[in-house]
């Protein structure tokens, strides 16, 4: 999970430095999501997360109190 999160952070960081707005973006993952993944995506304004793996109960709890949609 740490490598997956680090990879996501690198992509988001590079896009942020280039001035991209994340309001119309979605995060797609071939693996499962973690609460850290949801928190990092939320921090930059990504509101839709779709993953092949089932979300954890902590992901769903965090999504319910934020503006996130986990699929």
Fold and architecture overview:
The protein has 71 residues and is of the alpha/beta class. It has 3 helices and 3 strands, in the order αβαβαβ. It has a 3-stranded parallel sheet with strand order 1-2-3. α3 links the parallel β2 (48-51) and β3. It starts with a helix and ends with a strand.
List the helices and strands and how they pair.
Layout: H1 2-17, E1 26-29, H2 35-43, E2 48-51, H3 57-65, E3 69-70
Parallel strand pairs: 1-2, 2-3
The tally of helices reads 3
Low-confidence stretches: none
Strand order across the largest sheet: 1-2-3
Helix coverage percent of residues?
Answer: 40-55%
Seen as an oligomer or otherwise, the chain set is: single chain
Instruction: Kindly report how far apart the N and C termini lie.
Output: 18 Å
Strand content: 5-15%
Shape: globular
The gyration radius over C-alpha positions equals 11 Å
- Which class best fits the helix and strand makeup? alpha/beta
Number of strands: 3
Give a quick account of the main beta sheet: strands, pairing sense, barrel closure: 3 strands, parallel
Q: Order of helices and strands, N to C?
A: HEHEHE
Mean pLDDT: 81
